[in-house]
Write a structure and sequence with these properties.
The protein is mainly alpha-helical and 556 residues long. The protein folds into five domains: 141 residues, no CATH class; 32 residues; 134 residues, Four Helix Bundle (Hemerythrin (Met), subunit A), CATH 1.20.120; 115 residues; 74 residues, EF-hand (Recoverin, domain 1), CATH 1.10.238.10. 74% of the residues lie in helices and 1% in strands. It is built from 25 helices and two strands. Strands 1-2 form a two-stranded antiparallel sheet. Helix 1 packs across helix 25 and helix 11 packs antiparallel against helix 13.
């Protein structure tokens, strides 16, 4: 009997417990949908247009109708049963396949899409405006007259921008410089026979090659872009070299056909020999293809302004000391008489211009400064000490500052050289790819956290991370930073791109981006808290409708 009573009590308690949990689940579902609904109402109007489904099917009318009376107060069993059925039919957002109302976290994505659409529309407008204001007149009529010109232009652009093209013409420039030197050497050894058919043939070959280079660049980039872009100086030099080379070739051939006594043609040909100088200057283009030479040239160019001011400072210092030593030599000559003055003192410090020249040569090694300081001893020992102070001050202060300016310019030029930056980026990708292949022993193309942890303490891994200035407290922290899509696996693109992003210390742009992201999250969190306060105020003024039950949960 007691056993049956205890079983009945347990069954009743279990039944009451199940009923209570069902009510609690219904209440939580209603609260969750109410939160979604109120949050959806606070969003901008454009979000409602993206949701094809109405939220009225997922939320009970009693939950969002402000003017409806409370169903529990009506006492009508049919109305209460209808509300109970509505609450039972409420689906969880995780289980429903309907479009969920957008959350506050979705606003950034919607803003991004809106910005992309607005940007695309503006880019189209910009393109149309640019084409209408600045049409490509030199090539537009060619495109209309010859539809094949576009294909020919793209082919020429691929040829001009290829590495083989640059390597070929770099070799041609070097060989042309050697040819000019050999020709001048032969002409100096045979002054009576200046025109040689062999040199004319080689000259014609180089003229054809350089003309084809200029023609390909004109076709690939157009007249305006090739002759008026950032490299306009080299472009005009190429055009001038080609033009003068053909004129010189014409005059050479004409001279060969005329009699040797024709002195006028010889003088004209000699005048156009300045093309040799232009071709020599054109050989400097080799610096475009050699990174070391390019850094030196860019360093000299960047240091031009600082070097100019340093030279002005050096000239002022030399001029001041020149006045000082010239005055001392003049006072000594007046004191002892012009006939008694040491001739060496007159030689080095007899006038201002002579003193300035002596001081300049003493600093730059053109003159032994001890030889110049000796005659000053006749004017007084103090002048010798002043001269030694001048040598030490200029050598250790001014010249070292100028050397530091050049070194700083070289560092800045190397950091801002686009080609060197791209080469370093490619080398970095290759290093990261080799390390990834070592970690991916199976060749699957993706590594797991277990494989990453097994090689995290490897010497190659440590050396690579130290070289790219990446530090992490443990393997999981670094793995999570590299796993961009958050799927628990790292591909080769994720690994290389992640290492590039984590490379080096934090820059100002990284800190600014982090600050902006923090402000955005703060605004979203503030908006979410405000919406929650509004919802709680509404819930306090209007209680939710629960499933009507007349039996207490503790009744048997």
């Amino acid at each position: 009997m007691e056993t049956q009573v205890s079983q009945l009590v347990e069954e009743a308690v279990q039944r009451s417990h199940d009923q209570f949990m069902a009510r609690l689940d219904n209440w939580l579902l209603a609260l969750e949908n109410r939160l979604c609904h109120d949050d959806y109402e606070t969003l901008p109007a454009d979000h409602h247009h993206h949701s094809p489904h109405s939220h009225s099917h997922a939320i009970s009318p009693a939950l969002h109708a402000e003017g409806d009376p409370e169903p529990s107060a009506s006492g009508d069993p049919e109305v209460e049963e209808a509300h109970r059925v509505e609450l039972d039919n409420v689906k969880s957002p995780m289980a429903s396949h309907e479009v969920k109302p957008p959350r506050p976290s979705d606003r950034s994505q919607s803003s991004y899409d809106l910005a992309k659409r607005e940007g695309s529309r503006l880019e189209v407008y910009k393109k149309l405006y640019t084409e209408s204001m600045h049409p490509d007149a030199p090539n537009a009529w060619l495109r209309r007259a010859c539809p094949c010109f576009v294909k020919f232009q793209s082919a020429a652009r691929r040829i001009v921008t290829s590495q083989r093209f640059e390597l070929f013409f770099a070799t041609v420039l070097v060989s042309n410089a050697l040819y000019i030197g050999a020709q001048i050497q032969w002409m100096s050894a045979h002054p009576t026979d200046l025109i040689d058919p062999g040199f004319t043939i080689v000259h014609t070959l180089y003229a054809v090659i350089f003309t084809s280079e200029v023609a390909l660049n004109l076709v690939a980039f157009g007249f305006k872009k090739f002759l008026c872009s950032s490299g306009w100086a080299w472009a005009w030099l190429d055009v001038l070299v080609v033009f003068s080379a053909w004129i010189e070739l014409y005059l050479d051939i004409q001279q060969m056909m005329n009699s040797p006594a024709s002195g006028t043609s010889v003088r004209i040909v000699r005048v156009f020999k300045f093309t040799r100088i232009l071709q020599g200057l054109r050989s400097l283009r080799i610096v475009r293809y050699v990174s070391g030479l390019r850094i030196l040239v860019y360093s000299m160019y960047d240091a031009t302004k600082s070097l100019l001011w340093a030279l002005i400072l050096l000239a002022l210092i030399i001029y001041v000391f020149g006045l000082l030593f010239s005055s001392a030599a003049l006072d000594h000559a007046v004191t002892v008489g012009p006939d008694v003055v040491d001739p060496q003192l007159k030689r080095f410090f007899g006038s201002v211009d002579v003193s300035v020249t002596t001081l300049y040569r003493s600093v730059l090694g053109g003159l032994d400064w001890g030889e110049a300081a000796g005659p000053l001893g006749t004017a007084g020992y103090v002048w010798v000490q002043i001269f030694q102070f001048y040598i030490g001050f200029v050598s250790f202060a001014i010249l070292n500052v100028m050397t530091g300016v050049f070194c700083n310019s070289a560092i800045r030029a190397a950091e801002h050289d686009h080609t060197i930056m791209m080469q370093n980026r490619v080398q970095f990708r290759d290093m990261a790819a080799d390390l990834f292949k070592k970690m991916d022993a199976s060749g699957f193309g993706q590594i797991t956290i277990n494989e990453f942890e097994s090689l995290y303490d490897d010497e190659d891994m440590k050396a690579f991370l130290d070289s790219i200035e990446i530090s992490a407290s443990d393997a999981w922290t670094l793995f999570a930073s590299l796993d961009q899509d958050g799927n628990g696996l790292i591909g080769i693109n994720e690994f290389t791109e992640g290492c590039l992003k984590l490379h080096g210390p934090a820059r100002s742009v990284d800190l600014y981006a982090l600050r902006q992201q923090h402000l955005k999250f703060r605004e979203q969190l503030t908006s979410l808290v405000q919406n929650q306060h509004k919802i709680m105020d509404k819930l306090q003024t209007r209680p939710l409708v629960l499933r009507p039950e007349t039996t207490s949960i503790f009744e048997v």
